[in-house]
């Protein structure tokens, strides 16, 4: 029997896209727009046991890691700035409000950091808003959530539909505001910024029986007259054009460039460097900051390939915006960017 089709959104929040009914559900599973995507375990088996990586020796010899500098002084201060903590984790400060995106502060059995954090996890205090794009373990880490909730009593979480119960199992009492795609979070009348939850082409799974039960997406921040887009995990799809049509040119685009090989395994989950550049161009991004590379070994491409390829794209004038390739921990003074 075909799964029942329904639509979900947070009725307490404003939906900004005219006529949008909410996120489509096939039974209990969220969809990528109109289409249900369920990852096939046979692809994992094919990748791990039946496929030889043609770049195996190149990858083994490639020991590149991002440069790391301390961001401790920035964390102690009040200046506006943007700091990459590695992978998809960023700290952004604007007008005295500090935001933290998708923090992964500790190693686990399956995720071993290839470079150190640019700060001690205990230094991540005075965080106002914790933004969680989706539930995969390299973006939603239980140990990180517990620590941040403990040392930031004022912390509020902005995330996706059905994320609340998952987070309450990690940090009971942590305030969570859930949004569907094309919804604006309610930050209060005095908030110095606006925040929107927007589409991404991805999926959810943490256990055996929760496939696509929690929504995934991306974030758009409007602050100091600029639009900052955090693409999170996403394949290349039509939502980039939709976002540009809704908001116009994006000032700063934080976009993933790693974990794209083998194609049959990764193409419906992540953008490769050429796709990331295409997405940034479609968004008419003035500035591009790559992420999701160099920190963890998640796929078959050599460690230095994603950033090297994106730099070649930019050098060849195939990237519309200005490319920024910061060290991990380097403070980017984004309000000063034209």
From TrEMBL:
Residues 98-293 form the Metallo-beta-lactamase domain. This is Metallo-beta-lactamase domain-containing protein. Pfam families: Lactamase_B_2 (PF12706). GO terms for cellular component: cytoplasm. It comes from the Bacteria. InterPro entries: Metallo-B-lactamas, NAPE-PLD, RibonucZ/Hydroxyglut_hydro. One of its GO terms (molecular function) is zinc ion binding. Gene3D superfamilies: Ribonuclease Z/Hydroxyacylglutathione hydrolase-like (3.60.15.10).
